[in-house]
Amino acid sequence: MTITVLDPGPQSLVEDLGRPGHASVGVSPSGGADRAALRLANRLVGNPEGAAAIESLLGGLEVRINAQRPVWVAVTGATTTVDVNGRGEGSHCSLVLHPGDVLRIDAPRRGLRTYLGVRGGLDVEPVLGSGATDILSGLGPAALQAGQELRLGVISRDLPDTDFSPVRPPSGVLGLRLGPRDDWFTPEALHRLDSVGWVVTPQSNRVATRLEGPRLTRRRAGELPSEAVIRGAVQVPPSGHPLIFGADHPVTGGYPVVGVVDEEDCDAVAQLRPGEVIKFALRSG
User: Fold this and answer.
1) What share of the chain is helix, strand, coil (3-state, %, to 5)?
2) Residue 183: which of 210, 218, 209 has the closest Cα?
3) Which of its termini does the chain have fewer beta carbons within 10 Å around, N or C?
4) 3-state SS string over 114-142?
């Protein structure tokens, strides 16, 4: 039971919910950049939420079903159109594909990443307990290539009663809690952090979303020992322009972390396109 990648588009990766627990040796959890979308794709086809799926950047992914029986699939994440044998279908719903059917994910109108969940999940060799692709460390499967075949896993659950999920529009506002190094920055810098709009730069990827705006000035010079951080940590390098660490983030590299984006907003960060403007909203506690 396989599917064949006919066209990977700009970038298509195998992702699950990652490999947590290795930060002490500098290995990030990795996994789906938009974890809520990954979980939803799996739920719609009756998989465990952490089953391996395909993360597609800006659409263009095209696959053919080689199974000997119908296969349920779902596309979630950025809202888009799904073509099945040239016929347009919607995203965020479950679809049944037959042997030989070809599915193509169109470029989304807004957002960056879509997720193709296939009933049974993808059967990939785990590395440190996960089949996720980490583009920074090189752990996990390589980026998908045209002609590549992917094995399907074993079906372990019934299909859900629901075959459609509404899409929640992004707000453009990210909750932020200061620390652990906010005392390294001037009061003016902290005020700027949540009072201006920040523009997403083209240098953004799964490692970090880089922002442009007014420079955040420091009250303390020097560097810190490298520290493990979590997804959503907002680091400020010498340029004074913050970046938000993503799924494949490294350790800090000596630069202070001024705050951490709320966990529930990290998925929204994964869908930000270059040129989009976001704002931070400081949380207390």
Assistant:
1) 10, 35, 55
2) 218
3) C
4) EEEEECCCECCCCECCECCCCCCCCCCCC
**Segment 8-65, tens digit of pLDDT:** 999 999 999 999 988 878 899 999 999 999 999 999 999 999 999 999 999 999 999 9
Residues 198 and 160: their CA atoms lie apart, in Å, by: 40
| Token reading at 61 | 């992914």
Residues 37, 41, 46, 52: what is their CA dihedral angle, to the nearest 10 degrees? Answer: -90
Give the closest residue to 233 by CA, choosing from 7, 29, 22: 29
| Distance between CA atoms of residues 105 and 73, nearest Å | 12
CATH numbers and ranges of domains, the chain: 2-151 (no CATH), 173-282 (2.40.100.10)
Tell me, what amino acid is at 187? Answer: P
Instruction: Give CA separation, 27 vs 139, 201, 206, in Å.
Output: 9, 25, 14
